[in-house]
């Protein structure tokens, strides 16, 4: 049968099985592309938020652990919360080593950050880096250069245990073997008097403050703790006491504590480190040491002191007064320079 009256022929089953092909029009393609782009953009934004949150968490962790470096004004940093781990800070501040550090910072900038933390009042307190901070303060005072008005620092935002602050303070110098036994003992003594620490026993604190040191070295520090406590400030030059001398004197004082009064009286007559140590040697030998006429002859000791006048550094020694300055003295008229020296001598001879 070829057809019907309407001219239609039967539909072939094969034609029904053929896949219908539908072309996407321009509008559909645009919609699909926009939807795909939006989906991809949303995924990117979600991933970016996740990354930002992770970065923020890592930053907070690094900041709390003191691994973030910041610039802090030198006058914003206080040194009142912790005692320093050095004796004779004024001598260190005017030493040749301090001048060398200042020259290095002036030429190359601050290479090593200091470490600071916030106290209970929210103020920055120094943990490590007293010499670097002092050098920058001196440079700013001497030059007025804004480069030296701030210091690069690691800031620990989270509150550390009090004992950890002490340990961190001394750790750097102990590792560099830059502290004397007397200075290490002094840290323990000061820490024992810290009400916020609540430790009390200086000799017991040595084990906590210097736990990284060999037990024999900790034993030496405890001997110096005992020595300084027994002499109650009567030792005028504690840094000059050698390890063996300090340990032996402490051992004798432990065996005969009533001898401490006599040794304190004797040391009151010591005007130099050499005299002090000769008195300690005599104490060990069981000899009485006179503090006036019978004073043992001492070896001549080179003594000097230094100070600043404006931008000039003055070093005074026996037979020498040296002036270091940026001033070109050769450019000054000789008669003018001579008048200045004559006025200098006239003041000295008043």
Automatic annotation (TrEMBL):
InterPro entries documented for this protein: Chromosome_partition/occlusion, ParB/Sulfiredoxin_sf, ParB_N, RepB_N
Annotated region (Disordered), positions in chain: 1-61
Taxonomic source organism: Ruegeria halocynthiae
Positions of the ParB-like N-terminal domain: 74-142
Species lineage: Bacteria, Pseudomonadati, Pseudomonadota, Alphaproteobacteria, Rhodobacterales
Name of protein: Chromosome partitioning protein, ParB family
Signal peptide span: none
UniProt feature, compositional bias: Basic and acidic residues: 42-61
SUPFAM superfamilies in UniProt: ParB/Sulfiredoxin
Gene3D superfamilies: Conserved hypothetical protein from pyrococcus furiosus pfu- 392566-001, ParB domain
Pfam families per record: ParB_N
GO biological process, one term: chromosome segregation
Residues annotated as transmembrane: none
Cellular component terms (Gene Ontology): chromosome
């Amino acid at each position: 049968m070829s057809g019907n009256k309407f001219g239609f022929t039967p539909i072939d089953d094969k034609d029904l099985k053929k896949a219908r092909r539908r072309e996407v029009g321009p509008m559909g393609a645009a919609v699909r592309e926009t939807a795909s782009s939006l989906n991809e953009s949303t995924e990117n934004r979600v991933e970016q938020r996740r990354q930002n949150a992770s970065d923020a968490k890592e930053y907070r962790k690094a900041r709390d652990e003191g691994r973030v470096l910041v610039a802090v004004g030198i006058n914003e940093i206080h040194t009142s919360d912790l005692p320093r781990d050095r004796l004779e800070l004024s001598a260190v501040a005017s030493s040749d080593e301090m001048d060398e550090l200042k020259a290095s910072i002036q030429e190359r900038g601050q290479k090593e950050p200091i470490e600071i933390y916030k106290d209970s009042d929210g103020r920055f307190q120094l943990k490590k880096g007293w010499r670097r901070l002092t050098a920058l303060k001196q440079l700013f005072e001497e030059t007025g250069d804004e480069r030296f008005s701030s210091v690069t620092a690691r800031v620990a935002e989270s509150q550390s245990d009090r004992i950890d602050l002490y340990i961190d303070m001394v750790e750097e110098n102990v590792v560099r073997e830059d502290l004397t036994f007397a200075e290490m003992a002094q840290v323990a003594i000061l820490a024992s008097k810290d009400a916020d620490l609540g430790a009390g026993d200086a000799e017991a604190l040595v084990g906590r403050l210097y736990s990284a040191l060999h037990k024999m070295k900790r034993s030496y520090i405890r001997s110096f703790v005992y020595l300084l406590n027994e002499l109650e400030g009567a030792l005028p030059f504690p840094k000059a006491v050698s390890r063996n001398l300090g340990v032996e004197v402490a051992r004798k004082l432990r065996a005969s504590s009533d001898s401490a009064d006599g040794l304190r009286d004797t040391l009151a007559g010591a005007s130099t480190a050499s005299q002090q140590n000769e008195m300690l040697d005599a104490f060990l030998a069981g000899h009485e040491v006179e503090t006036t006429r019978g004073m043992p002859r001492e070896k001549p000791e080179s003594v000097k002191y230094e100070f600043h006048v404006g931008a000039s550094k003055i070093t005074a020694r026996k037979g020498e007064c040296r002036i270091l300055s940026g001033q070109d003295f050769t450019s000054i008229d000789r008669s003018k320079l001579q008048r200045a020296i004559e006025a200098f001598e006239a003041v000295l001879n008043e």
